[in-house]
Amino acid sequence: MKDRPMVPRADFRSYYGRPIVRPAVWHHDIAAYLFTGGLAAGSAMLAAGGDATGRPALRRAGRVTALGALVASTYFLVNDLGRPERFHHMLRVAKPTSPMSMGTWILSGFGAFAGAAAVAEAAPLLPRPLGRLLGPVGTAGQYAAAVTAPALATYTAVLLADTATPSWHAAYPELPFVFAGSALASGAGVGLIAAPPRESAPARRMAVLGAAMELYGAHRVETSKGILSEPYTQGRPGKLLRAGRTLTALGTAGALLGRRSRVVSALSGAALLAASLATRFGIFEGGIASAEDPKYTVVPQRERLAQRQQQHKQG
Amino acid sequence: MGANSLYGPLDPAPDAGYVDAPPRMGFFTDTSVCIGCKACEVACKEWNGVPDDGFNLLGHSYDNTGGLSANSWRAVAFIEQPAVVPAGPVDALAEAAAGRSDALAEAGCGGAGTTREPEFLGMPGTDLPGRTPDAPRTDFRWLMMSNVCKHCTHAGCLDVCPTGALFRTEFGTVVVQEDVCNGCGYCIPACPYGVIDQRKDDGRAWKCTLCYDRIGDGLTPACAQACPTQSIQYGELDELRARAAERVEKLKDQGARLYGHDPDDGVGGDGAFFLLLDEPEVYGLPPDPIVATRDLPAMWKRAGLAGLAMAAAVAVSFLGGRR
Ligand code: SF4
Ligand code: SF4
Question: What SS3 class is residue B147?
Fold first, then answer.
């Protein structure tokens, strides 16, 4: 039952079955970055919320995780380049038609803000005048990072969708919601792991809202794109996305039911983080699979042509 | 940015900011006269210093290049077809289940349209093929096409390049600056034709430059210069389009059609376009390519909406409920 194709097998012609569009040459660094970038964004928002409502544990965990995830993101992005020593060529231009260029600037800005916020956590350890100065700088950085965070969490969806990779492009209306929800859920996961029960209520609500967004988006991507939904439901991408969904459900349930237990909360947080990771890899690999099979290029384009001809005849 | 900067008919060089740009230059590849000699592939490699791409035997046809890549900027496709195009694809399993084993056998050996007994092809002759009036002829045809970067009016690769390595030349062509490219790889999935590619041992992206270093000096690109049948024609795009319109009119009965000539298509028309004798996908070309950037404004809008939803979710999480 599970293995039966959801869409009838399409007949199409091709050049000896060779791919037409080229699959992205990105390694798993980029899939990992989708996760760490979202985690940085979610954590920064958690930190700002925690600070604004007097919850120091959330603030601290959020700030530190945001910086850690940011450093990891930078590593993944530079490491994936064909010429890593030329990473700064990204800063030559700011180009609105290139989501990667926009993302570079978003990440740079976010990095400066989140960096300041995280360093300020060390203020109490520093000599007084310096520590005094650092506090407000950190607070300013923290709020600036939180304001930049939604852009950081969602531009990666545009990055993938603005390609000829059939299943990424077709998913452009919902992909930002998948990534935004996934970022929120992972940020909430950090809160659930780090905060004592008296501080963690907002993280629980964040987990629920994030999970809802992610599940809604993923459901649309997996069901409403006709033949282009297929790569997200089969093979490894399908397994990863199903695992992500299960982990999200478990994590959210644990977050709601395990209120009083630190252990259950922490486990739920870990499940949410793992869910986010699995979802990102699933979306990444689903797109690659759609580029590797000429079917996903030819069949939808043929349908489009046929539709246009139909309209032409009628109009 | 002009009204059609992302999509629609456009003259790309002036749109990119060139004042008094020379006429847009391009290729018209007329596959009806291609003889599959691969002189273009060789000339391109020689002139541009393109490394070999491995000496592979792909085993599907005389094409052992396989397609365009970082190390093949011209690639000749070979398609061997039954001369009579079969009525439709043969579903071998269904045919077998229905007990029609001949159909199965034929699907296995390439699927000719009709059922045939093995045929005696006659003694090898001493004359040129086709010279003797009623010598037996086999009923297949070869399609050959020299593929190349399309130098799109709206080039996905160029739109998404975050370093500015890809740029629009004054001739309206699209070229990578190898001293700028940092191998981010974004252009590669962005090309709707699967042209541009990363050179593995080098990390950077490479593709046809339409011999930018030759045409600036008034020379013809190496491939067009080497083509012995004028299958590859180089010139001003307007003139090539007029010539192609005439040619396709003449070959209408043979199923000829133009591909990439139309400024109203999904990429605003190609700077390098083709005359084909079968559907584009048979040659490994997308039947209806659209530049992804067409939808970029809509994509940013959706991302903005998702970002706002995210901010709202955090606000609700921290302000809603008192606990
Ligand atoms: S065919 Fe591909 S590589 Fe060539 S200009 Fe168009 S988008 Fe760029
Ligand atoms: S790989 Fe090079 S040419 Fe391609 S988008 Fe990146 S920087 Fe530009």
Answer: strand
- In chain B, where are the structural domains located? 12-82+140-290, 291-323
CATH 2.40.10.220 for domain B12-82+140-290: no
**What does the block give as tokens for B277?**
């004798």
pLDDT at B107 over 50: no
The CA distance from A44 to A58, in Å, is 10
List chain A residues with pLDDT less than 70: 1-10, 315
Q: Which residues of A266-276 are buried (b: 16+ CB within 10 A; e: fewer)?
A: bbbbbbbbbbb
**From CA A181, how far away is CA B301, in angstroms rounded?**
17
- Ligand 2 atom at minimal distance to the Cα of residue A100: 5
Structure tokens given for A147: 């304001």
Backbone angles phi, psi at A211, to 5 degrees: -60, -40
Cα–Cα distance measured from residue B28 to residue A224, given in angstroms and rounded to the nearest whole number: 40
Interface test with A, best of B146, B152, B154, B163 (most A CBs within 10 A): B163
The stretches of chain A forming alpha helices (DSSP H) are: 28-52, 56-80, 99-120, 128-161, 166-170, 175-194, 201-223, 235-257, 262-292, 295-314
Report residue B101's pLDDT band, with 50, 70 and 90 as the boundaries.
very low
Q: How many CB atoms lie within 10 A of CB B157?
A: 26
Nearest CA in chain A to B6: A97
Residue B8's closest CA among B260, B265, B191?
A: B265
* Average pLDDT over chain B, rounded to an integer: 87
Distance from CA of B59 to the nearest CA of A (A): 10
Walk me through the domains of chain A, giving residue ranges and CATH numbers. 28-304 (1.20.1630.10)
Which pLDDT tens digit goes with each residue over A217-250? 999 999 999 999 999 999 999 999 999 999 999 9
The candidate with the shortest Cα–Cα distance to A58, out of A206, A227, A209, A200, is: A200
ipTM: 0.94
Compute the mean pLDDT over every residue in chain A, rounded to the nearest whole number: 94
Alpha-carbon distance of A283 to A302, in angstroms, equals 25
The predicted structure's pLDDT at residue B276: 97
> Taking the CB of residue B80, how many other CB atoms lie within 10 A of it?
12
Query: What is the band of B2 on the pLDDT scale with cuts at 50, 70, 90?
Result: low
The b-or-e profile of B158-191 (16+ CB within 10 A means b, else e) is: bbbbbbbbbebbbbbbbbbeeebbbbbbbbbbbb
Q: Is the CB of B182 under 6 A from ligand 2?
A: yes
Residue B45: the pLDDT is 97
> What is the rounded distance in angstroms from the CA atom of residue B314 to the CA atom of residue A168?
27
